[in-house]
Design a protein that fits this description.
Blueprint (H helix, E strand, L loop, with lengths): L11 H13 L5 H15 L5 H13 L7 H8 L4
Helix pairs in contact: 1-2, 1-4, 2-3, 3-4
């Protein structure tokens, strides 16, 4: 019997690019994707503190109206790749 395997997750930096596209296009999937991204950020980036997650969540909240905050979010995931 063949064993099903999950594909490797999209890197956080690439997931952020997808979020930026969702925000730009006013895609209804944005909020759920943003919530998933913030959870992954909290779990996958070493040394993340609550204030880092709060800051990232704030930037994700304003991203659809302030696309320039994408650069701040990119800086958060630079250590994780």
């Amino acid at each position: 019997m063949a064993r099903l395997t999950r594909p490797p997750p999209v890197p956080l930096s690439e997931a952020l690019d997808i979020l930026a596209a969702f925000a730009r296009d006013d895609d209804p999937r944005y909020e759920k994707a943003a919530l998933r991204w913030i959870g992954r950020y909290a779990l996958e980036v070493p040394g993340v503190a609550i204030e880092d997650v709060t800051r990232a969540a704030t930037w994700l909240d304003v991203l659809p109206d302030q696309p320039e905050v994408i650069e701040k979010l990119r800086e958060l995931v630079a250590p994780a790749g």
